[in-house]
From TrEMBL:
Naturally occurring in which organism (per UniProt): Streptomyces laurentii
GO function term, MF aspect, one: hydrolase activity
Alphabetized Gene3D superfamilies for the sequence: Carbon-nitrogen hydrolase
UniProt protein name: Hydrolase
The UniProt record lists the keyword Cytoplasm: no
Length: 264
């Protein structure tokens, strides 16, 4: 299976509509090159651009959905379209509704096959943690020969979520992120840890550049079930391409059957 991780810079001076069109072009460029394409977290607005969340929030089937569905169809790829700020109406008089950090996964014919609302919200007592509601459901997607579990950025710090995804059949994890450069060492360490402890592939796609005065880590990374780094991007915009062997998950779990010794 051929996978492409498109590491995008979120430039605050680039209009959101222009960025959607640019990202859609980048996805289409993977036609014939990739089977699976992955985008970063909250690339339409920026993961730390909290003041823009409300203004840029969309319904599930809004402009980001439409642009990415068309791009997946035109490229003929499975597309994890990163995440965007989703607004869910709640019937209140002010029409504010609830916001979620929502990921979308499309099939090669442009059909939505899964959506995931981020469970662990970052920010402690500010930012995403107070502006957005938490998702509740674990999500897996059956690709040809490989079942992937879906997580987002800060989720990477919570191993229980990934154990749950393994129990649901996951052989790989796809993790879009907007990870800050000042904690880049944690990004790499945790990506390898999640791969090793679950004997699964990790495809972690981050953002580049700086937005809301927060420098992004970049360094998207793909780790195999033994914890070996197969590919790693640099700090700038880049498309990281790698070939995955779905059979390696089963062979790793057979050769070193640590998951069978789980007690809890």
């Amino acid at each position: 299976m051929r996978a492409s991780l498109i590491q995008i810079a979120v430039d605050p001076d680039e209009p959101v509509d222009d960025r959607r069109a640019r990202v859609a072009r980048l996805v289409r460029e993977e036609r014939g090159v990739a089977d699976l394409v992955v985008l970063p977290e909250l690339w339409p607005t920026g993961a730390f651009a909290y003041e823009a969340f409300g203004a840029e929030a969309e319904p599930l089937k809004g402009p980001t959905y439409e642009a990415m569905a068309a791009a997946a169809r035109d490229a003929g790829v499975w597309l994890h379209a990163g995440s965007f700020v989703e607004r869910v109406p709640d019937g209140a008089a002010d029409g504010a509704g609830s916001l979620y950090n929502t990921s979308l996964v499309f099939s090669p014919d442009g059909e939505l096959v899964a959506s995931y609302r981020k469970i662990h919200r970052f920010g402690f007592d500010k930012g995403e943690a107070v502006l957005m509601a938490a998702g509740e459901d674990l999500v897996t997607v059956d690709l040809p020969r490989l079942t992937v579990g879906v997580a987002t950025c800060y989720d990477l710090r919570f191993p229980e979520l990934f154990r749950g995804l393994v129990d649901a059949g996951a052989q790989a994890f796809v993790i879009p992120a907007g990870w800050p450069a000042r904690r880049r060492a944690h990004w790499t360490l945790l990506a390898q840890a999640r791969a090793v402890e679950n004997q699964a592939y990790v495809l972690a796609c981050g953002t580049a550049g700086t937005h809301a005065d927060v420098e992004q880590a970049g360094h998207s990374i793909v780790v195999d079930p033994w914890g070996e780094v197969l590919a790693e991007a640099g700090p700038g915009e880049e498309t990281l391409r790698v070939v995955l062997d779905p059979a390696k998950v089963a062979s790793t779990r057979e050769q070193f059957p640590a998951l069978k010794d789980r007690v809890l």
